[in-house]
Structures are given as structure tokens and as C-alpha cells.
Amino acid sequence: MQIVLDARNTGRAMGTGVTTYTNTLAAALTKQGSSTISWLRESPSLGVLPAVASHSRYARYIRFFKALTSQKRLASCVTSGTTDLISNDLFRIGHVHFNIYGRPLSIVADTQPDLMHWTYPLPFTMTGCPNIVTIHDLIPILHPEFCTTNPERMQKLLQCVIERADKVVTISNTVRQDILTHFNLPPQRVCVIHQATNIPEELEALRYRKLGPAACPTGGFLYMGTIERRKNIGRLIRAHARSRTTRPLILIGPEGFGAQEELAALNDHPYPERVLRLPWMLRDDLLCAIQEARAVVFPSLAEGFGLPIIEAMALGVPVLTSLGGTTEEIAGQAAYLVDPLDVDSITEGLIRLDREELLHTTLVNAGSRRVQYFNMQDYGARFSALYRDVLASK
Fold this sequence. Notes:
- This protein is of the alpha/beta class.
- It has two domains: 2-196 and 375-393, Glycogen Phosphorylase B (Rossmann fold), CATH 3.40.50.2000; 200-374, Rossmann fold.
- It is 41% helix and 18% strand.
- The protein has 15 helices and 16 strands.
- The protein has helices spanning 17-32, 57-69, 90-101, 139-142, 151-164, 173-183, 199-203, 233-243, 259-263, 283-291, 307-314, 325-331, 343-355, 357-370, 376-393, and strands at 2-6, 36-43, 72-77, 85-88, 105-109, 115-118, 124-126, 131-134, 167-170, 190-192, 221-224, 249-252, 275-278, 295-298, 319-322, 336-338.
- Strands 7-5-3-4-2-1-6-8-9-10 form a ten-stranded mixed beta sheet. It has a six-stranded parallel beta sheet with strand order 13-12-11-14-15-16, sandwiched between helices.
- Helix 1 (17-32) links the parallel strand 1 (2-6) and strand 2.
- Helix 8 crosses helix 13.
- The longest helix is centred in the last third of the chain and has 18 residues, at 376-393.
- The chain is globular, with a radius of gyration of 22 Å.
- The relative contact order is 0.12.
């Protein structure tokens, strides 16, 4: 069974949640051994232009002309020993085509796969085989105040993608219900396969590593992810200030939408030096930093999944996260749950995790049990079964 995954979000600098999702899925399927994994990639330039000019005005004109005159794009098999499919400037042209025509661009492969899995909603359809799409969340539509994505365009894109997909996959029951309600779909159209973590396999490489204290303090409250409005960093900083804890609050991740407004809470912190900002960290260093933390804090206002929750549990670290929605679903009863809109509730959680050793130990043990559900073997098996069902139905 040859499965093609899109490479749109792989290899990005500093990674994204979708990058992790795509790479984890590929690793799980490879481990299963029942599928051959190929990638749909784009070549980096327009062919007539050097790669460095791909964002120039002339490049945009060429891209617009190609999108305007193309109803399909050829994806050719690389002949250098792989089964990957390559199409010139594919992803940019596809988005321009959708902006012009309001429909997906067809991809025609010269080597036909058994199934195409789009790991993120993209304006394409692979001809001649079933298409599956993963929808991670409806945040741009349901909570446009949390991002810069155009909600009308996203609504139109998702509607178009859903209509043409043989199956829609999502990553939590919460998001599944959002999709069923918002798009008025029959339940059988959308299935849930929770994400997995391969951290247990990464730990072996870290067995003899320790992160130096100069890079990241130990015993602190650690947040990892983009600093943005929906992550609720402002309330977290205010709660840290109110808790009067001497443990540092460590914020690891780049700045995103609304970051400056969230970080403005530092101006009212009586001990701002206790809040450490690290815009980025190598993966190995990040895992070490998590292991050395007192707790991972993740009081997000909106999530599709909440990967830091299970990553912390896999590393034996307690988690503080939000009541309700996806975060509570993923955490189960294995995290300290707070009202993300109530600074006092977050404050109480920080105080208790700071001082109560029994609570700390209880959450570590509960987390180690909870994270077993998110293992790579079962994850790959769930997707392999889904692919077989889709192919059988065709």
C-alpha cells in the first residue's frame, strides 16, 4: 500500500505543530511496515527563476499566470531511488489557483499512489485515488480573534476540502464535534485519531545528557510553544506574579500574533527577572529542559490537541492546563486543571504545584499512565486500519 503525504509543512525552521504531526505520522507508518510512504514535494523555484527570486514581483506574476492557466499540475516521480513526487512551485500555485477559482487544483501523478493523505487542509486533490485530509482545528473560524488567518477564506477552503475528501481525520473529539456541528456533516465522515508522541524513543539518546543551568534554570514552571494571544501568556505571567513563587517562569518559543500584548504583563510583575524568555531551543535541549522543570504550564484558550501535555507526561513532569475543551480531553484526570480565564485559578495551581510534593508525585504517576494511550505502535495501527477501510470502500 503506497501512501503519499504532503511535505508542505515539513522541514520548517523551528517547526510547527503540523510539522510534528506529519513527521510523527510518517514515522509511525514506517514502523508499521504495511505501507510505503512517499512525499509530495515542490521544487524550490519557478524553473525560469533562481530560488532567491521566488518572492519577487516577477515571480508572483509568473505564479499567477500559471495558476490562471492551469487546471491540473503534474507530479513526477523522482528517479533517484525514491518514490517521492515532485511538482514545480506546487503549493504557492495551488493557493493562487484557489484564490482565483475557489476550487482545488488537481494533481496528476505519473506514478499513481494507492492513497493521498493531506496532513493539513490544502487546496488540492490527487486524481485517481482516495484522498484523506486532516483538519487540526477550527480556530480561525470559531475564534478569529486569536489569529490573523482570514476566517472567510478558511471557511471556504475547508468546505471545499471536506466536500472532496473521502475521509476527514481530526485529532480530538472536541474538534470532531466542532467540525460536525459547523459543517453539518454526518458522523461517519469524520474520525478521530489522537496524536502520538515518540519521546520514549528519543530519551535513549538523552540518557547521559544534562542541560547546563546557564542555558535554562531547573525546577521552574515551563511553557513551550509560540507566544501568542490564544496561549494565554498574559494571565500566566500575572498568575506567576501573584503566586509569589521563587521558581522561575520559563517561556520557550517564538513570538506570534499578539505576543507583545501578552508579554506586557511583565511590566506589572514585581520580580520580572524571574521570567525567562528563550525564543528557541534545539530539540534535545528542549527535552532536557522539560525533564528539569517543576511542571509544564499550558493554560491555553483554544487548541486542536495540546501536544505539550503528553510530551510533559512522557518525560515524567506534572502538567497544569485548562479545564474544558481539547486540553481537558487530552489530559484526562492526569493534570492539574484550571479555569484559563481566571488568574486566581491559575495562581492557585502554581502555588500548589510549587509546594505540595504529594500532588506533584500523584500527577507524575497519573501522567505516566495517561501517556501510554498515545503510543506510536497503536497510532500507526489506527491509521493503517483507516487506510484499509477507505481503500476497501472504493
